[in-house]
Backbone:
């Protein structure tokens, strides 16, 4: 470093700047990519796939329970489904009594699920 | 050595400092962000295994029409039967070695006053709070009054006198799963 001319010094400085800035931009890109990966992962794990399937399944089961017994079995089970979903899965679950078409052949059931982040609505037809 | 040497050293020093800063920035970022981005893979694997095991228990045997093994186990408060069935489908693997997934199972139900209660079914190990557990659940519809047992009893603790809650009830089998 003893006998450097002015031109060499300028080159060294320029290269130093270029290298450090490129490293800086690489770091920013790396930073962004991990953030993107994390939000995707969170979206995947937060989606209540099995909760929705389970609620849908038990709601359809409950439609076929006879309205009998001390507690009126069907409506009692259905109110339990709504309450337990609210308490344990943070989800508002609502479903309708069957709506029949003009001929009375098909029954339509409306099933709604909403946990504040994901919502699921279904019209289930029977038979 | 009077004119430009000092400036050169100074500017070189600044460039070197920038490079070092950038390096530290990269290293600190990569190590700290790595974990939250990747833990979900293990969690999701546990969740899938647990959900499958519970779901398999909740189908009636051989496509027969009737109660599933899970419903029968809950109605009989058969904690050890649940342990055997669930632990086998959870931890059996091809070959000799078993997996080491631990679980704690509860039944959640609504009592007569409309409060939500949980009662334990069984657990393979006590949960101390340091474990990183995931939750899986399965809905069941049970007859709360077990007339077949001797003496007949109600399967939910709040329904003290035997027939008082008799009838069908929706309940949620909730299982916490973790590896140790």
Residues:
């Amino acid at each position: 470093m003893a006998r450097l001319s002015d031109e060499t010094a300028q080159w060294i400085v320029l290269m130093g700047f270029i290298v450090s800035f490129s490293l800086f931009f690489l770091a920013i890109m790396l930073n962004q990519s991990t953030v993107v990966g994390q939000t995707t992962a969170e979206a995947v794990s937060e989606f209540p796939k099995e909760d929705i399937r389970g609620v849908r399944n038990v709601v359809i089961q409950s439609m076929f329970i006879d309205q009998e017994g001390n507690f009126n079995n069907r409506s009692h089970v259905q109110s339990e489904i709504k309450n337990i979903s609210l308490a344990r899965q943070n989800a508002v679950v609502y479903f309708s009594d069957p709506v029949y078409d003009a001929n009375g052949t098909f029954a339509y059931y409306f099933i709604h699920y909403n946990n504040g982040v994901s919502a699921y609505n279904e019209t289930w037809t029977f038979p | 050595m009077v004119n430009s040497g000092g400036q050169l050293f100074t500017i070189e020093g600044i460039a070197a400092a920038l490079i070092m800063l950038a390096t530290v920035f990269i290293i600190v970022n990569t190590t700290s962000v790595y974990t939250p981005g990747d833990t979900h893979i293990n969690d999701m694997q546990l969740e899938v295994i647990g959900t499958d095991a519970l779901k398999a228990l909740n189908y009636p045997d051989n496509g027969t029409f009737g109660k599933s093994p899970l419903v029968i186990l809950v109605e009989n408060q058969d904690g050890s039967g649940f342990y055997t069935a669930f632990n086998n489908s959870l931890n059996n693997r091809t070959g000799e070695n078993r997996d080491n997934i631990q679980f704690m199972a509860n039944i959640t139900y609504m009592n007569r006053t409309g409060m939500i209660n949980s009662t334990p079914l069984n657990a393979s190990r006590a949960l101390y709070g340091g474990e990183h557990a995931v939750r899986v659940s399965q809905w069941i519809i049970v007859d709360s009054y077990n007339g077949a047992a001797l003496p007949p009893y109600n399967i939910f603790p709040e329904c003290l006198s035997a027939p008082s809650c008799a009838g069908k009830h929706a309940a949620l089998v909730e299982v916490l799963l973790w590896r140790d």
User: Anything to note?
Assistant: The two ends of chain A are 89 Å apart (CA to CA). The first strand of chain A starts at residue 92 and ends at 95. The mean pLDDT of chain A is 85.
